[in-house]
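Please fill in the sequence for the structure shown.

STRUCTURE ENCODING:
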């Protein structure tokens, strides 16, 4: 039998409408669970617990977090949590954001009473919800029974437990828990609730349960409780990313990393990971105080950190306190070679590279600038041309104008100097001409005087000759008379 099937062209619009309506309904429901906060929030929040995202409208990371934030609001609301979820435009309400110590975007804080806890982990829904539930509850949670104790150990990878009654150690434990609750869980239990596999040397005691075993705190060996908790809050071997590496910097430990490619696994990468895990487990007592072990997927972040290229797979040790790093001089083939390399870093015989010298800081400035420009051009070439091409063009025109103006000024100065030299030369020529004319005039005067003197001398001689002739004539006349 042939069935009457409606034409596809008529069904498609109806399905699209229903799909869009469902999508809009779900979005509106999710958005309803996140409140937009204003400057009245700080006066009305005292009796509630708030998970707040401080953002800037122009921040790309904030926009990327927006759908995740609404999923967090919807899930906390549906689970019956007492945590309120909100968001605040820190640029519009800068005074409120400043009171809460907001320095960058986005900033995630859980506000409980007078306390504000910063979230510094990965910006995923599950991680943020776990942080909110952990911090919103009691700082130290009680484990009333052995079953609850074992359930908590199965549920969490790292758990700190105070075992015993009231003491000064418990007071210190509560103080440390109030400070570090943003990172891990803190519990307390009486001795009868402790599993039989746990052997206590003394009571009261503080223990950390992780990696399938437990480790006891020793004040004489480990120093301050807060420092010990901060170093032990990570498992012995980690899957390290940028956020984890940032948190590891606060422990003061060196970070030994197997750099591998998780997307394209290789035998060499698997071998390096296995060697790193083995050293982390078998040499815990020797290295756990100073080293954190783990692996990282890809070398992009490491390359940016050390401003150099690290091959994949490879091994690197980072000193996050001074930006130094260490690389093995030869390929690590066995766990003995791995231990030897780690020991060389620990005793200072391994060659350190990088650092925080002035040269490295200048290099960092240029590297970051180049990376920023390249990332912009890779993501949006047109935007990159506009952002960098336009300013460069303007700067080039300004430089051209300045250079041209200087050239004009120089030519004007040169012309002026040339005119002055010409005037001075003309003045000298004029003076020389005047001197020459004066000299010629003087010579003419002298010649005239000499000529006059010569002419005067000839006249006197003629007169003398005439007088002599007259005297001779007179004398001859007298002689004639005498005769």
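FILLED IN BY: designer on duty
SEQUENCE:
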């Amino acid at each position: 039998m042939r069935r009457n099937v409606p034409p596809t062209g008529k069904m498609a619009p109806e399905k699209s409408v229903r799909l869009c309506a469902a999508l809009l309904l779900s979005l509106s429901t999710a958005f309803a669970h996140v409140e937009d906060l204003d400057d009245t929030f700080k006066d009305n929040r005292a009796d509630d617990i708030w998970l707040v995202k401080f953002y800037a409208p122009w921040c790309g990371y904030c926009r990327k977090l927006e759908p995740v934030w609404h999923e967090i609001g919807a899930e906390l609301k549906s689970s019956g949590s007492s945590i309120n979820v909100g968001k605040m435009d820190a640029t519009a309400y800068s005074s409120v954001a400043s009171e809460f110590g907001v320095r960058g975007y986005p900033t995630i804080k859980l506000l409980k009473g007078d306390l504000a806890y910063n979230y510094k982990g990965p910006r995923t829904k599950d991680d943020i919800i776990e942080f909110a539930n952990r911090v919103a509850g009691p700082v130290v949670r009680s484990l009333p029974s052995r079953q609850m104790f074992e359930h908590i150990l199965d549920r969490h990878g790292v758990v700190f437990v105070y075992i015993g009654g009231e003491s000064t150690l418990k007071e210190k434990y509560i103080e440390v828990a109030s400070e570090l609750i943003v990172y891990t869980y803190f519990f307390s239990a009486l001795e009868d609730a402790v599993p039989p596999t746990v052997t206590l040397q003394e009571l009261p005691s503080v223990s950390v349960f992780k990696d399938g075993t437990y480790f006891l705190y020793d004040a004489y060996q480990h120093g301050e409780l807060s420092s010990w908790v901060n170093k032990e809050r990570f498992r012995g071997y980690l899957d390290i990313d940028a956020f984890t590496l940032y948190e590891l910097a606060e422990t003061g430990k060196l970070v030994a990393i197997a750099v591998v490619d998780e997307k394209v696994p290789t035998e060499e990468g698997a071998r390096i990971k296995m060697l790193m895990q083995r050293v982390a487990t078998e040499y815990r007592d020797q290295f756990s105080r100073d080293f954190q072990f783990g692996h990282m997927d890809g070398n992009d972040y490491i390359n940016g950190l050390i401003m150099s290229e690290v091959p994949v797979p490879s091994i690197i040790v980072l000193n996050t306190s001074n930006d130094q790093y260490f690389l093995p001089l030869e390929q690590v083939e066995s766990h003995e070679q791995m231990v030897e390399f780690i020991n060389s870093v620990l005793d200072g015989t391994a060659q350190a590279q990088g650092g925080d010298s002035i040269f490295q800081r200048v290099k960092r400035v240029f590297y970051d600038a180049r990376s920023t420009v390249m990332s912009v051009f890779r993501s949006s070439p047109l935007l990159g041309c506009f952002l960098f091409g336009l300013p460069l063009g303007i700067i080039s025109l300004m430089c051209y104008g300045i250079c041209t103006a200087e050239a004009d000024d120089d030519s004007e100065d040169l012309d002026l100097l040339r005119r002055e030299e010409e005037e001075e030369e003309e003045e000298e020529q004029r003076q020389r001409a005047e001197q020459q004319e004066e000299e010629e005039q003087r010579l003419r005067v002298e010649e005239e005087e000499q000529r006059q003197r010569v002419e005067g001398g000839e006249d006197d001689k003629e007169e003398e000759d005439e007088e002599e002739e007259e005297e001779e004539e007179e004398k001859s006349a007298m002689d004639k008379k005498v005769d």
